[in-house]
Design a protein that fits this description.
The complex is a heterodimer.
Chain A lengths: L3 E6 L8 H9 L7 H5 L8 E7 L6 E7 L18 E3 L5 E3 L9 H5 L5 E3 L26 E3 L4 H13 L12 H5 L5 E5 L6 H6 L4 E2 L11 E4 L6
Chain B lengths: L8 H28 L1 H4 L13 H7 L4 H4 L14 H8 L10 H9 L19 H6 L4 H5 L16 H9 L22 H11 L14
Helix pairs in contact in B: 5-6
Classes of the chains: A alpha+beta, B mainly alpha.
Chain lengths: 229, 216
């Protein structure tokens, strides 16, 4: 059974935001408008955090794309009363929208702010509803949603591989953010397979995990910057 | 001052407790039975269609293979609904004046698809894939029933999650050889208890019950 994980090379990330747009498009993430966003109800399964370092004029800007870290020991899972938030065999923190009753315990438990509550029913200005992805269900009001590592793509590739009686090849599955990253800063793959690119990158001495001391054991490895801008 | 309660009041109180309990259990059971009833699941219910298409005639009498019309069933999640042209492959020659086929001819004339009503309609948060089920030896008949005996199409099973999981937990009870997937009225050549586990091993069938298998 593969264990899906990701490596983010911060040296390559230019902060362009292509992954954020791709994520919204792939996963039917609705927008809430600027007023609601101002009170913290915006939903971005993937965000790019900006860090300014130094004083003007000698400032440096660093970017860090942050998505659900798909923790092995996820704090969001044991708090869910309906098992809507649960761990899959292949190491994902899955969220079953149709089980979720919206207690929001999981979002409170998540150290990464990677879970988003639907305060409204989704709506799109016409004709934008035509670009919705049919492989991802729409989340109704009162449901928690989050990055799934594009589980629809993982399952589709897995089904295809099974139909052809083979294993999923390394690099065959690309979540929307990975696919759209022009700088190839994001790499997705099987951490269980020692020869996969993501495993190789995760073993790098530059690698570190976000908020590792929470004990959440995230599956996303960040490779620190080498170059200084 | 006389007693308020008579001698019989104790019995009555005990009886009311027992009856109340039975009533509560009964009400909950009724709710559960109602939830599984065909009234809720719409099983065994005929659906109004633009045209009275008979699977019994086309599959049963004529022996047309499922894949002649449902072309993408082996390659796609969606089995596919035939286009008007597929109907007209035969009906440009057969029953060309039949009044019952007028909607088909009108559809071809006006270049407007026939708007069939979906019979097996899963909730929008369920993602089912036809191709992999066929590849793993799940017969059409296993879910759709004896289509060759249905003059009008109806949903034979509840399509509730419990029903899906029933097979996902015990696929050996339902699996059949791949070459028999499109057979109607299939009978296992040897006992299913022998053949089932053998096919499960051969086809490497996994009991996938992780939620995200179907819900995304």
């Amino acid at each position: 059974m593969p264990q899906w994980g990701m490596a983010v090379d911060l040296d390559r990330c230019t902060g362009c935001g292509g992954c954020v747009v791709a994520c919204h498009a792939e996963n039917n993430i609705s927008t809430v408008g600027d007023e609601q966003a101002a009170v913290g109800r915006a939903k971005h399964w993937l965000r790019i955090e900006r860090y300014w370092e130094g004083d003007f004029p000698d400032v440096r800007l660093k970017f860090r794309p942050v998505m659900c870290q798909q923790c092995d020991n996820a704090p969001c899972e044991p708090v869910c009363p309906t098992y809507a938030s649960h761990h899959t065999d292949d190491g994902l923190n899955a969220q079953v929208y149709n089980r979720c009753i919206g207690t929001r315990y999981c979002a409170n438990a998540c150290p990464y702010n990677a879970r988003f509550f639907d305060f409204f029913n989704p709506s799109w200005d016409k004709p934008l509803q035509l670009q919705l992805n049919p492989d991802v269900s729409l989340r109704e009001v009162g449901v928690m949603e989050k990055c799934t590592f594009c589980v629809q793509r993982i399952r589709a590739a897995g089904t295809q591989a099974k139909a052809e009686e083979r294993d999923v090849a390394d690099g065959e599955i690309q979540p929307a953010c990975v696919q759209s990253c022009g700088a190839r800063a994001l790499v997705f793959g099987d951490l269980e397979n020692p020869s996969s690119e993501v495993s190789r990158l995760s073993r790098s001495p530059r690698g570190s995990k976000l908020l590792e001391d929470t004990g959440a054991q995230p599956s996303v490895t960040y490779l620190s910057r080498l170059t200084q801008v | 001052m006389p007693q308020i309660f008579s001698r019989g009041a104790n019995t009555l109180a005990k009886l009311s407790l027992a009856l109340g309990l039975m009533g509560a259990v009964g009400a909950i059971s009724l709710l559960i039975i109602f939830g599984k009833s065909s009234y809720v699941t719409r099983a065994n219910e005929f659906v109004e269609q633009p045209l009275q298409f008979s699977h019994a005639h086309h599959v049963g009498d004529d022996g047309i293979d499922c894949r002649y019309c449902h072309t993408s069933v082996e390659t796609s999640s969606f089995a596919g609904i035939p286009s008007t042209q597929t109907c007209m492959n035969c009906h440009s020659q057969l029953w060309v004046d039949s009044p019952i086929l007028e909607p088909v001819r009108a559809s071809l004339r006006d270049d407007q698809s026939l708007r069939w009503t979906r019979v097996h309609d899963l909730p929008d948060f369920v993602y089912f894939n036809h191709s992999i089920h066929g590849k793993k030896g799940v017969g059409c008949e296993t879910c759709h029933g004896r289509v060759d005996q249905m003059p009008l199409m109806y949903q034979q099973n509840s399509l509730q999650m419990e029903w899906c999981i029933g097979c996902h937990l015990a696929p050996e009870q339902f699996v059949r050889p791949r070459e028999e997937v499109f057979t109607m009225g299939y009978r296992p050549p040897v006992a299913q208890a022998v053949l089932g586990p053998q096919l499960v091993r051969e086809y490497a069938i996994q009991s996938l019950t992780t939620c995200s298998t179907c819900h995304r």
